[in-house]
Design a protein that fits this description.
Pfam families: UPF0102
Largest sheet: 5 strands, mixed
Number of domains: 1
Strand content: 35-45%
Distance between the termini: 38 Å
CATH architecture: 3-Layer(aba) Sandwich
CATH class: Alpha Beta
Order of helices and strands: HEEEHEE
Number of strands: 5
Protein name: UPF0102 protein SAMN02745207_00322
Helix content: 25-40%
CATH topology: Trna Endonuclease, Chain: A, domain 1
Family: Belongs to the UPF0102 family.
Structural class: alpha+beta
Strand order of the largest sheet: 1-2-3-4-5
GO molecular function, one term: nucleic acid binding
InterPro entries: Restrct_endonuc-II-like (IPR011335), tRNA_endonuc-like_dom_sf (IPR011856), UPF0102_YraN-like (IPR003509)
Amino acid sequence: MITIKKFNYEIGKLGEDLVATHLKEKGYYILERNFTCSIGEIDIIAKKDNILCFVEVKSRYNLSFGYPCESITGKKVRKIKKIALWYISKYKIKNTDFRFDVAEVYFEKNNELMINIIQNAF
């Protein structure tokens, strides 16, 4: 028997896989997937040109709980920014611009999906 928690985990994992593939197709180089440190986790860290992108992925199979990006709280934004600063410091990254993106994945009823990348989301 599959639980709601397990189902949501699987939807999230699938969404992250699809976004990573989408970003690669758009010319991004994936540096990290599920980067974790003592502060928390960032779903995807990618680079394109001279921009380092910290990407939070949110997936939905319906909109009854709102749009995916709406689930990102101020607390989550602050945590992602702290993790990003930790990452930049740890790897001594210099002379590189960075931004915070949100990737929304919508699973449609007719087995179609849509990926929406919101650049500079916060």
